[in-house]
Design brief:
The structure is a homodimer of 119-residue chains. With 119 residues, chain A is mostly beta strands. The first copy, chain A, has a domain at 22-98: Sandwich (Jelly Rolls). Helix content of chain A is 4%, strand content 45%. Chain A is built from 1 helix and 8 strands; from the N terminus they run E-H-E-E-E-E-E-E-E. In chain A, strands 2, 3, 4, 5, 6, 7 and 8 form a 7-stranded antiparallel beta sheet that branches. In chain A, strand 5 and strand 6 form a beta hairpin. The mean pLDDT of chain A is 96. At the A-B interface, strand 1, strand 2, strand 4, strand 6 and strand 7 of A face strand 1, strand 2, strand 4, strand 6 and strand 7 of B.
């Protein structure tokens, strides 16, 4: 039961689109990630996914609109909904989602991260 | 799928020790609360609980030590572990925990909130 200082955790890595596990509870993972540029369109068939912006600005595109998130703002993407995160400048985000969640969901491809690092 | 602006949500209520539901995913609730003063010692037999400080300073007392959390810092209190949150000045926190979680856990008493408001 040690507290997690998010700003310290973000200093531990530079790579983007590579979520790191910073906590686990009730079958869920707490992850952090640095994002910049465009991700792939994807969905998670079995998992709802929460994005909380810590620093910077993140856009989540859906097929029919977009949401722009600033620090202190979050969105829950329900299972089955196609989405594509993107950020012009680097953004730091916190994610909350089931341990089973794969970052690219149904899309697969080069950006897929199978074994996430715990930091 | 609308974003949640935490600062706007915190403006909607003043009462303390009264968590409000601001999101739901994967059987979990995202809650926010304003805390000041001392809560009761309690534990949750079946639920792990995450406290993320948004504004102010929160202390979580355990039976053998304390953790002091500032904004951008979180702690996960595992099921079964007795804890007591307290804050000298008002603190704004975000909670992640299963929908089944009762705020006072096994302790009961006057501070128990059975039907949480969604805001």
């Amino acid at each position: 039961m040690q507290k997690v200082i998010l700003s310290e955790k973000f200093k531990l890595f530079k790579e983007r689109w590579t979520p790191k596990i910073v906590g686990e509870l009730n079958g869920q993972h707490v992850k952090i990630a640095k994002l910049q540029g465009e991700f792939v369109w994807h969905k998670h068939d079995e998992e709802d996914e929460l994005f909380l912006v810590i620093k910077g600005q993140l856009t989540i595109a859906f097929r029919d609109y977009e949401e722009v998130l600033n620090p202190g703002e979050f969105i829950i993407v329900p299972r089955g909904i196609e989405h594509k995160p993107y950020a012009e400048k680097e953004v730091e985000v916190m994610l909350f989602e089931p341990k089973s969640t794969l970052n690219t969901g149904n899309a697969g491809g080069d950006l897929t991260q199978n074994d996430l690092e715990k930091i």
